[in-house]
Specification:
There is one protein chain. This protein folds into 3 domains: 162 residues; 78 residues, Sandwich (Immunoglobulin-like); 108 residues, Immunoglobulin-like (Sandwich). Helix content is 1%, strand content 43%. It is built from 1 helix and 31 strands. Strands 5-8-9-15-11-12 form a 6-stranded antiparallel beta sheet. Strands 6-7-10-14-13 form a 5-stranded antiparallel beta sheet, with no helix packed on it. The protein has a 5-stranded mixed beta sheet with strand order 16-22-21-18-19, with no helix packed on it.
């Protein structure tokens, strides 16, 4: 037929062609004849690391499938069906691809399950895409159990979530859908998936062998009891690590079966004694790691004695006089009733004429002790001397009337 064009050759300026995003860039090409615009034809630019690739176009209201499934042992692959909204303003292109090497740089991930690509250019928020990602037959046993599904968001590897935020469906059966594969992840991408269907402009996806986290409960500690018979202790698990970029860890501190808290850095109170605490960290794939830390809470602070100042009394009696005094004691851990106090001369003792040194020793339950002294001077008063203001020196209870209290705790 005259005028029928069966082949069209186009020269596209380099400035119109984007650099391959993580290995692939797709450009829709249309032909313009007067006011008539042709259907778009996808034009794909790929990097050398791209192994197999397939691109199809979808007009508004059309459903299309692109497939690069594994056909030999050791390969990974992907097949996806895009349903393009009838209300979409433009055509869309669907690209599936596999890689021979990791096209991302500066990232930590074990891509033993294979790396694939799913790109949708021109997606509408109302679109959906059901994708089936097949991992290599070489992934078995422990590696298959902890195989995870992640995408590269331009900075790090993040977990893929299907529509509604649910986890991808994982099927570990071999050779599903007539492929040569070790198993399959199935995901539905939409406006509520992660990534969203409109964010699949250049999405490298890895079926990665999850690396186990490493818990670090911090260095052992020895702390002083400062609050009753307890001490406030800061536990620091922030040194825990995970070999996979983008993996978020959760924390649980335990003493025996008792859960103390779920923060990476936790402040808690512990009784006097030696405590072995366990930190368990869990990554997003459910793998765990534990570490222990030993916290010794001790009481090495001696009691504080509160003693009177030096005391001076007078008497007409040559054998001296009784003198009462008040002593108190404080301790950070032990209660008063549990502190033993020893007096070299007890309150109410008859003190001889002259100066006597009184020694007081207090010992708490941990064996810490403190010692203090004060003096009591008794002067002999003649008949003409004034009274010292502390009662008759002939009354054995002369100081009682002046409010003196004696220590009423235990004495040894």
């Amino acid at each position: 037929m005259s005028g029928l064009v069966t082949n069209l050759r186009a020269v596209i300026p380099a400035s119109f062609v984007p650099s391959p995003a993580n290995g692939i860039a797709t450009v829709p090409i249309t032909a313009l004849s007067g006011n008539v615009v042709s259907n778009s034809l996808p034009f794909t630019v790929r990097a050398a690391s791209v192994n197999r690739i397939n691109t199809v176009g979808a007009a508004p209201g059309q459903a299309v499938t692109s497939s690069t499934v594994p056909t030999t042992a050791g390969q990974a692959g992907v097949s996806a069906t895009l349903t393009h909204s009838a209300q979409a303003a433009q055509a869309a292109t669907l690209t599936t691809a596999t890689y021979s090497s990791n096209p991302t740089t500066g990232t930590r991930i074990n891509t033993g399950g294979g790396i694939v690509d799913l790109q949708i250019a021109g997606a509408d928020p109302a679109d959906t895409a059901t994708a089936r990602f097949y991992y290599s037959t070489t992934v078995t046993g422990f590696a298959e159990t902890f195989l995870v599904f992640r995408y590269f968001n331009g900075t790090t590897w993040a977990n893929v979530r299907s529509t509604g935020g649910v986890n991808p469906n994982k099927n570990t059966a071999n050779n599903l859908d007539s492929t040569v594969s070790g198993g399959r992840f199935t995901v539905t991408f939409s406006n509520t998936s992660t990534p969203k269907i409109t964010e699949l402009g250049g999405t490298v996806i890895a079926m990665a062998i999850n690396g186990a986290p490493v818990a670090s409960a911090g260095a052992d500690q020895t702390v002083e009891a400062t609050f009753g018979d307890e001490a406030f202790v800061t536990l620091d698990g922030s040194g825990s690590t995970d070999p996979d970029d983008g993996d978020t860890l959760t924390y649980e501190w335990r003493q025996g079966k008792k859960v103390l808290g779920t923060d990476a850095v936790l402040t808690t109170s512990l009784d006097v004694g030696v405590h072995t605490l366990t930190l368990e960290v869990t990554d997003e794939s459910g793998e765990t790691s534990t570490d222990t830390v030993v916290i010794a809470v001790r009481d090495t602070t001696a009691p504080t004695l509160i003693l009177p100042g030096d005391i001076v009394r007078s008497t007409k009696r040559s054998d001296g006089r009784k003198v009462r005094y008040d002593v108190d004691v404080l301790d950070l851990v032990s209660e008063r009733r549990d502190i033993s106090v020893h007096f070299s001369h007890r309150s109410g003792t008859r003190f001889p004429i002259g100066t006597t040194t009184v020694t007081v020793t207090a010992k708490d339950e941990a064996g810490n002790f403190s010692t203090g002294t004060f003096t009591i001077t008794v002067n002999l008063r003649s008949d003409g001397d004034d009274d010292d203001g502390h009662g008759s020196d002939d009354d054995d209870d002369d100081d009682r009337d002046h409010g003196w209290r004696h220590w009423d705790g235990r004495r040894d």
